[in-house]
Fold each of these.
Amino acid sequence: MAKYLNTTAINFELENLIKSSTKFLILISPYLKIAPRLKDLIKHQSSKVPIIIVYGKEELKDKELAWFKSCSNIRLHYCSNLHGKCYINQSSAILSSMNLYDFSQINNNEMGILINTKDDREAITDAYEDAKYLISISDVVSDSISSKDDQDDIVTLKLTSSKIAKKHKLTTPDFIEKMLELGFLEAKGDKHHITDKAKGIGAEFKRGRFGFYFLWPDIDFC
């Protein structure tokens, strides 16, 4: 269930969201002038997970840009018409009026909500999709994410059947059978097709170099 956050709660939950990131972290904020404590948390977390940061209201000062370039595993994007503020990891998201701006954290009266994959599946899937869209239309300013696989995963925010089966400690055939039981897939002859229910959580049917495959949102829906 969505949780309302006031200014103090946003700061508290944002720190928790950053520290609890185990797969990826996406920070979307028009203004970037990050408070020292958050900088320390972000830099520490970047040694563990790939991080994408999207900003858009003004060019960064040389000192700020140099700091981002000094961090490992961070990709910085610029989106000129960005106004939304959203902070997402693999299990939760904060939708808020607060920028990653030290003035906002200290002086402004802010409002926001916290959602999670367990209780707010549809809302957080939609937030993931919008985050993916913003990333796709923005310009890369700096990029220190080392692995191409990490870059692909953090942009799509989705996993193939084999990868998500492994996450749930299942074989791929067992995972497919589970999706059939839950109504996310249906069998037509010897082929499997995604259902409207699957599309509702963001599942996709794709064609790649080696044939067709399914992509699933990296959330705990099964």
Amino acid sequence: MCACGSLVAQTTPVGSIPSGFTRIFNGRDLSGWHISRSNHHGTVANFHVENSTIVAAQQPLGQGGIVLTNRKYRDFELVLEANPDHDTDGGIFLRSTETGAGYQVDLTPRGENAPVMTLVGEDLHLGPHTDLAERRPTQGVWKLHDWNGVRIRIVGEAPRVTLWLNEILIWDVQQARNDLPADATEGMIALQCHWNAWGALDPPTKPGKYVSMLWRPAAVHRYRNIAVKELK
């Protein structure tokens, strides 16, 4: 499933985008993007722009959501820089529907550790949340409390998805089939702010039973220099 030695690391200097890519975030506002009003993570998450950065925060605490591109994409490479606070849960969606069904690159830093990044099927034929790639620790590659260069490529009807982090190949996986709803072969790019709160009761009728710590109060995810190259 993984062919991690087959591709050469892709160089993307922090603060710039590679030649041949087109910016899809203008650094000023969310023009070209919209917040989903129909996904199970929430519909009122606080996505806004500060200092040329998309900032994602729960609003109110416990309620998340996704912000999506207005355009749909099929085969493409996506580059961006990410700087999420620790003790948060989110990710980057590929070929997403309006409701947030798609392929997700998980981005969930826990404590003072680097995130364990994997490819997740979010609300696909396989189930609500299924790992599609081996979970790969990113210690030694991830820069804690700093900007990290992310590059993702998705190609094919049964997609091959490849992830580089700070120029290092993390995984390269070929899916056995297309698991998107209605066998769609294109969708939107989305950024996720996961629902649920730090130590929230789950369910509230059973005091003392807590969910994992999904989003620390006042924590945010940050994204900048977002660009796409469509592949023929």
Amino acid sequence: MEQRKPNKFVIAAFAILHVAVVALTWRDISARPADEIRGNKRFWRVFSALNTANAGAYWLIGRRRG
């Protein structure tokens, strides 16, 4: 059975999407006061950089709504 090679365009698109989402997340973390974030700012920066879904978790769970 022949193995399929990953499509480089799809991989590049996901990489660009991840970088954009993480950049927006970090920008929000930097601009937001610490009391409006659940947990430590450093934790959310590292956690969001590991995975795109983790950045989504910040937007859903990590921010306190005033």
